[in-house]
Structures are given as structure tokens and as C-alpha cells.
Amino acid sequence: MQIMKKSVLYFLLLLFIQKGFAQSDLSWQGYFSYNEIKDVSESATAVFAASENALFSKNLSTNVIKTTNTIDGLSGQTISSIYHSSTFNKTIVGYENGLIIVINEVDGSMLNVVDIINKQLPADIKKVNHFMEFEGIAYISCDFGIVQFNLTTMQFGDTYFIGDNGAEINVNQTALFNGFIYAATNSGIKRATISNKNLIDFNQWETIATGSWSSATTFGADLYAVDTSGNVQKFSVSSNSFTGFVQLSQPSLDMRVSSDYLIVTTSSSIYIYNSQMVLVRQINTNQIPESNIRFTCASVIGANIFIGTKENGLFATALSSSVNFENITPIGPARNNIFSLHVTPNALWTVYGDYSADYNPYPLDSYGVSKFTATGWLNIPYEQVLRAQSMTRITVNPSNENEVYASSFFSGLLKIENDVPTILYNQTNSGLESLTFVGPDYVDIRVNGTAFDKSGNLWVTTSRIKNGLKVFKSTGQWQSYAMDNILDSAIDNNFGTIAIDKNGTKWLSTSEDGVIGFNESSGKFKKITTGPDTGNLPVSNVRTVAVDTRNQLWIGTTKGLRVLPNVGNFQSEEQMTANPIIIVEDNLAQELLFEQFITDIAVDGANNKWIGTADSGLFLVSPNGKETKYHFTINNSPLPSNVINDVAINSVSGEVFIATAKGLVSFKGVSTAANDDLSNAYVYPNPVRPEYHGTVKIAGLLDKATIKITDIEGNLVYETTSEGGTIEWDTTAFGKYKVASGVYMIFISAQDGVETKVKKVMIIR
């Protein structure tokens, strides 16, 4: 009994961990795309839509749209099905990995149900395909069989393995008809009496039709099913068999009954039949103005049709022959898989093109560019970016926020002015060059890392050519630098990110030659690569470099982290050497991020390092790397994926933007860039109310400012020195105990003591 109690407590703790982080005092924000509609469901007054890993609903009476994502407690895994039970006012979300999340629409609480995940079955056959409700039980169709789930007790019941001899079988949909439960499977349509108490016995299920079937549903007094070739068939009770009703031109992706209509969806057409099985409406993709539409599902509520698409979100149109289609999708980025981003104090830019781990951009992506500001999202589609494909980096001119450059790992360099793409620089109108080893007639210009120097010149790297480093000068001239003497094989090399230090030295990450340093004033190229005498990197494949506020170069490779102690030694040291960071864990000395595939490094205003990895989430380490302050993963944070593509920080607000393979989130960091004076110093929250459990932030600071906090009688309760523009106070007296209610004085003074500021904060316990 004691063991059982411990197991229950452990399970409850896991549930709390899975749900609790969204309500913690860490401040997260989600920026998800809702464009890829996986499934829809409905009530009498609302439509519910599931995108790749987030949900939204629209109340048809109030027109209020509500979104739900990982910030609210959803999993970042891929959703495969959704069902809203009007009887229980609960929404059930099914995932490809077998996870089920039940959302109570009354209070928004969520229950993570992991019974299917925990089944001793191959991981690739746990996908949830469909929900069918009958007498308080949800019959869940999965890739292995059928599972019962009690909507009252929130407990699983029996599992039906209905394949031959009780084998697993792919069940796509179930339907209830004339006292039987019918299952559309990849091995025929099977049925059993719904009242049979022994349905776990595969012998109780009979096969009434062979072949592969995608759907089965009851419509009025009849049962309809569609096979995987798109043949819609009607069940004949007298002959106990199916007969053809209509042959679709494409396979059916979805068939359902809603508001007394039968709706069949293919990728290019939606067919809506009334109760007499008369086709009352057919909608084709070419009727919707947006290009490249692909349907996924559709439903009818009242007099309106709601249409899910593969990449364009959810549309609404009147059931009557209306030509008007309204996109009701919440505004967000074009896709969840953001490959790279760039943040300024006023805007966030994102691109979606990518390449594989070995820098292969194929198949080429055509997703455009997105921009987020205080007014919302602006998505610039592929049709407007001058046919630039696979855009992998984006850079804003620090002297002119209206001038933006997007790197294409195939098409060159795209210039965007005032949010309008204006020029695509390529081999015909710039100093950029195409790779040539494929042949003289094949154009492939692989621009990746870009960075502006202090003079307003844009430095550009181009992979797999001799003159891999180029500069687009503020005067409009291009200049190239040959790198075949410093690279072992220029045509085999790929460039990652580029960083420029305060001395104007360019640091280039490469796939084959480690880090290349270059300073045009001396004309010197230097290499930091593997080997104790040639740079001490763990591997020559470097993905990212970043210069911190102490003039150290942080180097992220596919096999770990290295730090160059001082970039200022570039001119004087013949061979520069990077070092690992050694930390002590469990009394053992070990290397920080040993053999981790590091995808990005961002330096915040306090010189902390935000380090993204290819499969282990996000790390925040102290300025010297000795202390890991946070390690965010899908298990302890709202991160939708442990695959971190890019990290960028708003230097003014301290907000840390994290692009993952399954969505963009941000963490409201407290490390902002230092200010020039104390005129904008402020305290938040103020007052601190009893329900608030976070820290007090004092922002707008100078670097190295001294902050002293006293009670109203002058007793010192806290003292620190700022690194960057913000500090935190946990409202304790030097970490010992929470201070009492009252007004507290905050004395701020610059490092030289010339400038001072006094602020107040009220704490209410």
C-alpha cells in the first residue's frame, strides 16, 4: 500500500509539473502559427480548430477567438485529432504520439492522459485518429485498435485489438449504427454489437467489407463509408454489404456528419450533402483567392461552413452559394518551424527556410518572411519576395530599422525596405557568385551569415565558392575576399553565423575549418580548428559564434562549446586557442555542454549566455559559464520542442525569443542592455501585491550601478551591483526572510557616483 501511495503521489507530481510551469512566476509568451489545420470540431455556438500543436476556438455568438498553446499547458507534440463534447463541455485533443489532453472548457484546466503512450506498443502506431462519443464513453480510434475513455471518470476502459488473431490494426474511424459499432480500418470494415461486454475478444468482431477504408459515419438512417481510393459507399442492411454511391476524383481526407449534413473533404474539394443525399454545395480550392490552398477537413455549424487547410488556416463561408470566404485564423507567423530570427527594440523578423545538418537546402522552401511589432504580425508571402527561396538568416540595419536583408541559401540576398521586398541580389546585379561545381548553367547562391559593422557595411558569407566572404559597402559597392588559402577546400565548406567584434574583426563559423577570423585593416586570416596546437576545438564543424561584453568569443560546435579568452589578441597571437568551460557537478569536474550539438548562442545585457541545442533544449549560463541558471526543456517549460533553431534578445525589454522546430516562444528575461543614464530607471511591479510571487525588477540602469534597498527607517535589506540594465530583488532581506509590508527606498548610483536616483516600491503582504 505504501508503494502504491508513493506511485500515486509521483504521478500527481508529474501531472503538476506538466501543467504547473505555465502558471509559475516565470513569464512566458507564445507566438504560434495556427495555419496548419489538423482537425475541427464544433458545438452549437463555437467552432474548435486544432493546428499543428495549438488550438483556437471562435464563439459564433460573440466572435471572440480564444487560443490555447504550450504556454497554457498543451504539449508541443503534433496534434492529430480533436473532439468537443457538448454534453460534458470538454475538448479532447489527440496526438500522433498517443498523448491525450482533456480540456475542461468551464475553467480551462487540463488533464494529460498518458495511458496510450505507456502502452507496450511500437511508438509509431500510437497515433490518435478519431473520437466517437456514445453514452458517456469516447471510443478512440488509434493506429493499433480502439480504446474506451470514460468522460465522467476521466479513466480509460478496455482496449480492442481487432485485427486477425487479435493483432494491432490501423483503425481510422468508428461509427454507431443499428446497435453495432463499425470500424473503418486498413484491413476492412469490422463491426461488433456495442452492448457486447466482451469486445476485447477479437472473435466478437466480424469483417463485413475487405480492403482499406479511411472513414465510416452514420448519416440519418444510413451508414456511409469511404475507402482509401475515394469511393464513397452506402451500407445495405438487406445484403449486409456496401454499394458504391459516388467515386471521388481524389482520396477522402475526412468524412463527418454535422448539422444534418454529410461533409466529405479531399485535398482540392469539399462535398456537402443534405439529408436526402443531394449535393447542395461543392467547394473547390480555386474558389478561394489565396494561392496553393489544400483542404484538410470541413464542418457545418448552422448556416456556415468552416474549412480547414494545410497551410492557410481556417476559412468560414455561408452554406448557401457564397463567393465570400473569410479567414478566421488567429494572426501569427506563417509557420511554426522558424529557422532564424532577428530582434530589434521595436520589431521581430523571422524566416523559415532551412538546411539539413550537412547544409543541404533541398527540397527548397518557399515560405516568405514575417515581421512582428506592437500592431501584430505582417506575413510577406513567397509570391512577394521576388522568388527568393530557403531564406535562412535575416539582419536589420542598426542605423535604419526600415532596411532589412534576408539571406537565401539558394537565391542570394533579399533587400526589404519599409516592409516591401525591393531587390534580390544575385550573380547578375551584385558581387555575389553562384557555386560552379554542378555546372556553368546551374545557379545556386548560398548566402547565410550576415552582419553589419560599425561603418554600416554589410558582411556576407557565401558557401561553397572560392570568394566566400564579401562586403556590401554602405556606398553600394561590393568587395570579395578569396578564402581558398585559409580553407582546406573552399567548394566543400559551408558558413554558419558571423560575428563582428569591437575591433572590426570578423569571426566566421564554418562546417569544415572551425572558426575563421579576418580583419581587413591588416588583411589577415586566421584559423581556429581542432588539435591542441591549432585551436583546440572539439570538432571542425562550428555552427555559431558570439562575442560577449568581456571580448570573449563563444564558439558553438556540433560536439560542444569552446571559448576564446580575448578577441583583442587577434593581431598579436599567431595561433589563437579556445578553451572548454570546466564545471563541477556531483564533485566531478566535467566540460560544460560536453558533445552537445549547439545551434545558437545569444548574449544578454548582463553577459549571460543563452545557448540553444539541437535536441536538449535551451541553457542559460552565467557570464563565465560556471553556473547554469536555467535549463529549459519540453518537460519543465512551455518550450514546444527541444530542437532550438535560433535565439534572439530584445536589448531594451530583455525578452528572449526562442525559435524551435515546433513554435516560437519568448521568456521575459531580466537582463537588458545598459542605459546611458538613469533618467529612465523604473521599478515593476509596483506595488507588489499578495498574489504576486515573482521578483521585483529595477530596470533602466547603468552598467555597474550600485543599488541599495532600505526600509522606511533606513535599514539596509538588499545591495547589489548591476550587470547590464536590469536587476532582480526577491523581496527578502539578503535572502534570509521575506520583508514585511511597507514602503521600501531604492537608492541607485552610477559607478563614478556622479549620477544618482531614488525610487520607491510598496510591498503588500
Automatic annotation (TrEMBL):
Pfam families: PorZ_N_b_propeller (PF21544). Residues 1-22 form the signal peptide. The keyword Signal applies. Keywords: Signal. The keyword Signal applies. Residues 47-206 form the PorZ N-terminal beta-propeller domain. This is Por secretion system C-terminal sorting domain-containing protein. It comes from Flavobacterium sinopsychrotolerans. The lineage of its organism: Bacteria, Pseudomonadati, Bacteroidota, Flavobacteriia, Flavobacteriales.
